[in-house]
Specification:
heterodimer; A: 227 residues; alpha/beta; B: 418 residues; alpha+beta; 13 strands; 17% strand; elongated
Chain lengths: 227, 418
Amino acid sequence: MILTMDKICKSYYRGKNEVPVLHDICLSVNKGDYLAIMGPSGSGKSTLMNIIGCLDKPSSGVYRLEGEDIAARKDNALAELRNKYIGFIFQSFYLMPSMSALENVALPLMYAGVPKKERLERAKEALQGVGLADRMKFLPNQLSGGQCQRVAIARAMAGRPALLLADEPTGALDTASGDQIMDLFDEINAAGSTIIMITHEPSIAARAKTVCHIRDGRLSVPGEEVQ
Amino acid sequence: MLGNIHQAFQGVWHHKLRSFLTMLGIIIGIAAIITIVSTIKGTNDQIKENLIGSGNNVVVVSLHQGDYQMDLSDGQRPEDVSVISEETRQSLEALEGVSAVSLFRQRQWGAQVMYRGTEYNGYTLGVDEHYFPVYGYRLCYGRSFLPEDRSENRKVAVMDAQAVASLFPGENAVGKVLEIKGEPFTVIGVVERSSKFRPVIETMSDYYMYANESSGSVFLTEQGWEIVFSFDEPQNAAVKAESTDAMTTAGKTVADHLTAKQIRDAKNSNYSYKSADLLQQAEQLQSMSDSTNKLLIWIAGISLLVGGIGVMNIMLVSVSERTHEIGLKKALGAKRRRILGQFLTEASVLTSLGGLLGILGGIGLAKLLSSAMNTPTAISIPAIIVAAAFSILIGLIFGLLPAMKAARMNPIDALRRE
């Protein structure tokens, strides 16, 4: 079991008004799963992704990532958890524009305290894994959108995280590049990595093994009864 | 850390104009401080050099009443003090650290030296034959005193170049007749200090004289002096020490010796011989110029404060420009300390570059000032080190607030913000 969520609720305060966003989310993800979470905008899927990614904490409920309860963790400890267990893939890549592809991929390894020589070695492997061995010294603005997203995937993979968390990974790409990225996801998943993908495109979601829907803050998981 | 510094330099280079404008306050502040400190140090070095003498190591030992140098211009004569004899002078020369001793009498005011109705306002001295060699005077033209001038009580005078310039500028002084207390004295020669054209400065009052504009000296023989002033007036001693380091002790030894020998009942007397402790005087003068200039340093410090605020401002701009970068780094696992370090490094790279430019600018300005206004400057290495350290410190202090703002950013907000 990579993660378990038990009755996760999240609400925000707008002034004094409590605005509930997530209601009693229960979810468990096993190693090797490939999960898509679908929902329209405003459904709470970004909030859910933030909680899964340890960028935010639930208002109530228990979230365990690799067995660790995140409730008691503060800013720095959460950063450590993210670094160790989660590989983020964002819609608009978020690569450091002044760094080469290799340096971008090595960045999270630096935060993990991996020595320079080793982290460059591992970054190189990760880039080879996404088929960019010949683009290591390129800056992000010298790469196409699809290549940038592959660099971002290499960055997410470099730390060998328990979970890859992708937020609209093809949202900024044309169909052809998007398909290549999805093919890459298939490969990665086939090699044993766990993936959670958030998207609002049914064709993209269909590539996952499991598709969950989120609507008005409630998550429905196939095979389980809708509460 | 090295990566941070590298990245900070890249950032500074990327925004060249902005970085330069931000640094300007620091540059101006540091440059001003370096200039001021260099000028202070230059002045101090010059004061010291002037007071200690231009290499001839002469200390003046003079008669004091209490703490003050005796002023004999009103003709009063201290009864307990006797005139120093030639044997005593020779015994002084045998003292440790002393290489030569000259005896002389001196008036600064009230000497009544006139030339065609104009009163001369410099020093008038009655000197023995050792005076010129001890002080290192050389003849410019005419002649110096001869033994006959002394043995025949001739009324002759030697002047230095400054005295000539103030009494009869541009003219040949030899043959001119000065009137001293109504007695005619013929000028026979003009002398100057052989060691370059440096002002003759041995005491505090000399220094102030020089500050106003030195008006020079008129020299008479001892015998000539005795014709117009009192003959039994106690002399001063000009003591030439064997080395600069020996000056203070040689002066003190001679003073003690003279006090013991020349003053009746020396222990209970109000009179004593004292040497002008030149090093101490130099320090007094230096501390005076220091205190005025310290004020200037504080004023320049305000520029640093303003510069620091400018740095803080631009760092805040930099933090909000790079919200996404901060958000991403935090999402990837960067801890607060790392983000803090990154922005602190950037701020201190900015200010230390500013400090470096300021130091270079300050040195340049000091050199420019010294050549344009003919003031002495000396570059102070400790001041440069302190300035460099201080400019880094400014970066750390004024970078702290923006860096903390960055470090505390919530990664979700930072990533989401457009």
